[in-house]
Amino acid sequence: MLIKEIVQEGRVEGVYMVLDCRRRVARNGKPFADIKLGDKSGEIALKVWEAQEEIFAKLQKGRVIRLAAVAGNYNNILQLEADGKEDFFRICQEGEYDPADFLPVSPVPLAESWRILDKACAQVELAPFRELLATFFQDSSFRKEFARVPAALRHHHAYLGGLLEHTAGVVTICQAALAHYPHVNRDLLLSGALLHDIGKVRSYETGTGFTNTDEGKLLGHLVLGVKMVAEAIAEIRRQRGAAFFPSTLELPLLHLLVSHHGVMEWGSPVEPVLLEACLLHHADYMDSEAAKY
Fold it and tell me: Model-level pTM greater than 0.90?
């Protein structure tokens, strides 16, 4: 039963995530657990009366539980209640649930965002860039991860599919800029827009929440993105020859990746010195800021 389906008093069974668990003392002096549960449909309070110490140890934030409780009305608000002396829950193990059932999801259909990205890939004419983009965006396992992770942990697009949605937004803004500034290098700007946040695939992971990976904490997505793209270019050169992907194409593209935060205070190792890098920075900033409203 989803939380949004709990609309009247009675027995409730379902799988929920523990969002918060606090110790309280009732008027009779006995301890109880004041818990907040959630799923993708909403949140609800759970009161566990006469909660024993082991309950607080098990019902930690982020745990997913299978619950059997009773919905009751308290001050005209429905809440769940359980007896701490009874076996009212079971901790779910990884693989017994889909994290998407407990995490926010992009409001934009994945297929719509993929349509924008795939169309942009097809618009790139330069063979080395096309092959580089195909290395990532024609790989099914990469597409799965790219469509899953958020674009950030908190500030913007912080939900499943957020990276895909954000990248589609940046690409769309860059395409508008290309229509207005015809002298811009189309292949460079589109490739940079498509790849600018690629390192977030290795920076973030999803489970019962969004967290940084060790690589994300220690290196950050800018460094990881450059590393991923440079490694892909090296493999293309190994297969096709060094002349196929000259440094005169690689360095400008890598510059777009490392400078897209715009200023050093915002995390860029360098600031944009190419027009395409400047446009990419402003497109990235515009889309991330618009998502906050």
Answer: no
- Cα–Cα distances (Å) from 249 to 126, 231, 253, in that order, read 10, 15, 7
Report the alpha-carbon distance of residue 16 to residue 149 in Å, rounded: 21
Count, residues in the chain: 293
- Is residue 147 a contact partner of residue 161, using CB atoms and an 8 Å limit? yes
Could you tell me how far CA 152 lies from the centroid of its own chain? 6
Exposed/middle/buried for 19, CB within 10 Å: 0-12, 13-18, 19+? middle
Question: What separation in angstroms does the CA of 22 have from each of 33, 55, 76, 86?
Answer: 6, 11, 22, 19
Q: Which pLDDT belongs to residue 154? A: 81
Cα distance between residue 131 and residue 118, in whole Å:
13
Q: Is 141 exposed, middle or buried (0-12, 13-18, 19+ CB in 10 A)?
A: exposed
Tokens linked to 161: 């599919």
- Note the pLDDT of residue 210: 83
Using DSSP's 3-state secondary structure scheme, residue 42 falls into strand
DSSP letter for each residue of 46-86: EEEET--HHHHHHS-TT-EEEEEEEEEEETTEEEEEEETTS
Indicate the Cα dihedral angle 246, 248, 254, 255, nearest 10°: 170
Query: How many Cβ atoms are within 10 Å of 70's Cβ, its own excluded?
Result: 14
**Do 215 and 169 contact (CB within 8 A), yes or no?**
no
What pLDDT does 85 receive?
86
What is the DSSP code (8-state) at residue 93?
P
Identity of the amino acid at 178: L
Least confident of 36-40, 195-199, 226-230: 36-40
Q: 130 to each of 138, 155, 190, how far by Cα in Å?
A: 11, 32, 11
**Three-class SS of 117-158:** HHHHHHHCCCHHHHHHHHHHHCCHHHHHHHCCCCCCCCCCCC
